[in-house]
Design a protein that fits this description.
There is one protein chain. By secondary structure, this protein is an alpha+beta fold. The chain is 59% helix and 15% strand. It is built from 6 helices and 5 strands, in the order αβαβαβαββαα. A 5-stranded antiparallel β-sheet has the order 2-3-1-4-5. The longest helix is centred in the C-terminal third of the chain and has 43 residues, at 131-173. One of its GO terms (cellular component) is large ribosomal subunit. One of its GO terms (biological process) is translation. Belongs to the universal ribosomal protein uL10 family.
């Protein structure tokens, strides 16, 4: 059994995470096995997120004054919390995939960048290209004009050579 001091530490940790996390997702994990919840934690950890299960009474003491206070009515029944601090798109993708693959894990509510979001908004966030894909698209977009200029110059030099050869052949025949 946890002491008051232990509970105070948990409340303080949760409050800090509720304040700093750009993505907080509440889930209902009822019926999940330990192996399934460990798999969820592993998938989210790989995506740079964290999944915690804490008593609702402790969570209720942690959310006042944070963006999560907007979804306070969802802290009912078994509640798990996914926090993402880095790449929220990767975390949203991992969570969406896990929810779709495991019917036992159910979406309750989310706060994305301080605003309440439903499951459709979480899915929309998950459909955004990853950071690496966006960087690749940017690199292509930056590289294209350079390639176009190089191709144009090459084409221009080929035309110049063709014109000079025509002029040379005309002078030789004249």
């Amino acid at each position: 059994m946890k002491t008051r001091k232990d509970k105070a530490v948990i409340i303080e940790e949760l409050k800090e995470k509720f304040e700093k996390a750009p993505l907080v997702v509440l889930t209902d994990f009822q019926g999940m096995t330990v192996a399934e919840s460990n798999a969820l934690r592993r998938v989210l950890r790989e995506a740079g997120a964290e999944y915690r299960v804490v008593k609702n009474t402790l969570m209720r003491k942690a959310y006042p004054g944070t963006p999560v206070e907007q979804i306070a009515d969802k802290f009912v029944g078994p509640t798990g919390i996914a926090f993402a601090f880095g790449d929220i798109v990767a975390a949203a993708k991992a969570l969406k995939k896990f929810i779709e693959e495991d019917e036992k894990l159910k979406f309750k509510a989310a706060v994305i960048e301080g605003k309440v979001a439903d499951y459709e908004q979480l899915k929309a966030l998950a459909s955004v290209p990853s950071r690496e894909e966006l960087l690749g698209q940017l690199a292509f977009a930056l590289k294209y004009p350079v390639n176009a200029i190089a191709w144009s110059l090459e084409n221009l030099f080929q035309k110049l050579v063709f014109v000079l050869e025509n002029v040379k052949s005309e002078k030789e025949t004249a």
